[in-house]
Amino acid sequence: MASLYHLSAVLLLSIIPFTTSTACGINSTTAITTDAQAFSAIEFDYVIVGAGAGGLAIATRLAEIEGTTVGIIEAGVFHDGDPVIDVPGNVGQALGNSTYDWSFETIPQPGAAGRILTLPRGKMLGGSTGINNMAWTRASRAEYDAWESFGPNNGWNWDGMLPHLKQPVDVAPNRTGLPLVDFEMYEPTFEGFSGPVSASFNAWYSDVFSPYLAAANSSGIPSNLDPDAGTTAGLMNSRSNVERDTGTRSYAASAYYCSHASQPNFRVLVNSQAIRVVLKKATLPGLYVATGVEFVSNNNTYTAMAKKDVILSAGTIQSPQLLELSGIGNSSILKRVGIEPLIDLPEVGENMQDHVFAPAQYQLKPGILTFDALRINATIAAEQSAIYAQNGTGMFSGTDSALSFLPLDLFLDNQTIGSLIDSFDTVVTENSTSVFRKAQYEIQKDWLRQGHVPQSEIIMWSRGAAPLANESYITLLSGVLHPASRGSVHVGSKDPLERPVINAGWLEADFDVLVVLQTLKFALEIATLEPLVSMIDSRVLPPPDIQDDQALIEFIRENAASASHPMGTIAMAPRGSGGVVDGNLIVYGTTNLRVCDASIIPNGIGTHLQSTIYGIGEKLAAMIQDAQNTADCDS
């Protein structure tokens, strides 16, 4: 199993006989261009690389500043009206398809039985928000507060982030006509109601949804009725980024881009790949100014010029790659591949963190309706297709939304928790090689001791991860949220079009494997509880003959997959302790090269990332605008 995204790719596209209408209407292509020569002739105020959550959020907000010009370079295109992207029931269909997905691969992962695993990343306008599983969640207050402990100020904490976590979103009340699920309302104080991205509860729930909730509650997991308020522990019914009036995915392209597509000061160059940031020496010794971005379009090389800032929003994998291609990074690595080092920042590409999950899958008894029906029952698929085409509701508008975020003391005894802390201490002793890493581990150890911050997650899918024909399933995915393992992303050569070398480090630390093990065992217990157990025919994964811990650990190493939540490779922290960007997200050694994506997260957060990345983009845009307003007042 390559990734959790791939585990969800079980519905057949052939059962969707319709397309969706365009999201932007007549404005859908106003700002989009493929004319690289004309694009490079414009001297923009801001040039942004990558049109994902962070890139489009900051680009469109900067474009709202009067007299400001913004250009985005995007390797993919806008899939406007494409049912593969727009229809929630098609989740997973874009994965592994080069039209939509970069389909990155790791080097062999020793902690994952030596497997080479894929890491999906969206290659399109909208980035990975166009191919993800649409969960709209936040991290806890403590996790955001931890960011500022690494040194940056400027409000990189819960209180400073909350306004910008609310800003991207327009949460929808229940408008489906269905009876309310028990916890289908959150506290309005912590929600946004005027942002471009729609977030809503489902219009359809599978037959296993409510029985699973009841079984999870019986196991000791309390319901969390307000997980956006800063405390995420417990069982939640997550909102999804679905526009409930149409039943379509609401993502960075349909939300941020479409609302600004007609602005004359905003341009998006598609089908073009950035290959290097152009740097020149600044007036102050030892500093460089970013003057533009080199990119390739139709096998020709061009340069987009920036008068103010260059902003990398290419993601946790490609933003560090671009820095290294530009001469910024570990000098030894750069010299080894023939790149002239300009700025020595040894931690560029290091510190990669991700969430890793292992599956428990159960075959259900006949007659239980789940998303698998769209795969195995042509009659139901046709009926649901007609319902969706008529009013955007039904199964094709739905997603799986039962998520449990678990502190260890919620499901483990003190002795087991103590054993896990001992395992974590071993990792700390062996791997605290830098001031930055020590600071990370101190925070994580404190979270383990206090017991408030979730360390693992169980995701319920009402479908099969590895389905057999003509059968319906429930899958429980058990994962680690704050791994001790760290990975890296680096250039393998100076060829800018060559894929980077990704060593994700998945499950290298025994602590991570043991957390997944304990969470998986807990998920297996949930499946033995009523009313869920009465719906189950048999266990499929792990195979029923696998019972003892050692066999389960082998199963985890051979079957665990990434949640595709990579972060941390351009960490926001003081330069002396291993940081790459400061509190203004400016790359050290430069005056105006910034990074705006999940790579800046210094210590990993235990949540699904998209809402946080939008928030980072919104916050950076506000910081830039405030600085510009101050400068205007002083002039």
From TrEMBL:
Q: Which UniProt keywords apply?
A: FAD, Flavoprotein, Glycoprotein, Oxidoreductase, Signal
List the GO molecular function terms.
flavin adenine dinucleotide binding; oxidoreductase activity, acting on CH-OH group of donors
Which Gene3D superfamilies does the record match to this protein? Answer: FAD/NAD(P)-binding domain, Glucose Oxidase, domain 3
Query: Which Pfam families does the entry link to?
Result: GMC_oxred_C, GMC_oxred_N
Task: Name the needed cofactors.
Answer: FAD
- Where does the signal peptide begin and end? 1-21
**InterPro entries under this entry?**
FAD/NAD-bd_sf, GMC_OxRdtase, GMC_OxRdtase_N, GMC_OxRtase_C
Please name the catalytic residues of this protein. H565, H608
Q: Which domain of life is it from?
A: Eukaryota
Domain Glucose-methanol-choline oxidoreductase N-terminal span(s) in chain numbering: 122-145, 315-329
The family note in this entry says: Belongs to the GMC oxidoreductase family.
Q: What is this protein called?
A: Alcohol oxidase
